[in-house]
Design a protein that fits this description.
Layout: E1 2-6, H1 11-22, E2 26-31, H2 39-48, E3 53-56, H3 62-72, E4 76-79, H4 86-91, H5 93-113, E5 118-124, E6 135-136, H6 147-165, E7 170-176, E8 178-180, H7 199-207, E9 214-217, E10 229-234, H8 235-248, E11 256-261, E12 266-268, H9 269-280, E13 286-289, E14 300-301, H10 304-310, H11 318-331
Bound molecules: UDP-4-deoxy-4-formamido-beta-L-arabinopyranose (WQD).
Amino acid sequence: MRVLITGGAGYIGSHTVLEVLAAGHDAVIADDFSNARPAVVDRLEELAGRPIEVHRIDVTDEAATDTLFADGRFDAVIHFAGFKAVGESVAEPLNYYRNNLDSALTVLRAMDAHGVRRFVFSSSATVYGENPVLERTEDMPTSATNPYGWTKVMIEQMLRDLAVADDTWRIAVLRYFNPVGAHRSGRIGEDPSGLPNNLMPFVAQVAVGRRERLSVFGDDYDTVDGTGVRDYIHVDDLASGHVAALERLGEITEPWSVWNLGSGEPVSVLQLVNAFSRASGRPIPYDVVARRPGDLPAYWADPSKANAELGWRATRTVDDMCADTWRWQSQNPDGYPA
Ligand code: WQD
């Protein structure tokens, strides 16, 4: 298949490009590089051992996106393009609704116009909102507690309505838990701009000496050690889950499907910090501070639906995730070159 990967120069997108190519498909990147460095493409071509077609495009631009599809001859789309910082979305809701909803709508309308019906959507476990059942299953109701989360809930609904209107679509909604790690080569990885919002990149930057200390957001939760518990999944397991979903869409008749992509293993903040210290051989100094507003104490995936229906499961351990992250961070202490 010839697969368009929007946001393909981003963290999860770039790892997915390699997996799509490794599975024998053709991968084409569309990215506006608002949250990705051009150097990522050089690294991908180095790792893939072949040139990769890249379109520098804002997929909220209808004319440009329609032209891309008119010429593209795409068989499928994996849609990552979008803003994804929870805190930023609270401060800038209009930017988030416009960018995330417009990019999804523009891509879907271009697909519709050009007869492309296979669509994999990058959703998030954040759509489960608060639920007393900590192990999340796909049949749970969706809601959000921030505009970023609401954009994911809303796009999932748009996709359900599209599938009802036209059952020739084959749509896979993939709900990620906490993506971490890096390609085993150490040549690509997570490179957040500015202060990392997420735990793993912050820990990695402390280990490599870019940050002084980690702030642990609360240790008084009702969890194994009082710190927040999440389901961390290696980005390459996540990438292979996208290929499995993409290929599954060619075998099923349901126009809309949803799968959790998680490891199913609950891990606390301190368990991750200790694993990273073991993997890097570096101390990770930290201070316990106040809880972060909006954080849930604990949740993780029940990945059994994806395991059964996609023939996919996460294989990398937390130690693998930390070792691969450390290789990337220690070889690229300042991330990608400008
Ligand atoms: C993990 C745990 C924090 C940073 C978010 C989004 C989600 C998805 C993944 C996009 C929590 C604790 C964190 C720090 C800490 N993003 N923590 N100190 O909040 O589970 O999920 O990122 O799709 O939509 O909500 O990830 O890595 O920010 O936090 O103690 O400096 O680490 O309290 O318990 P989160 P996270």
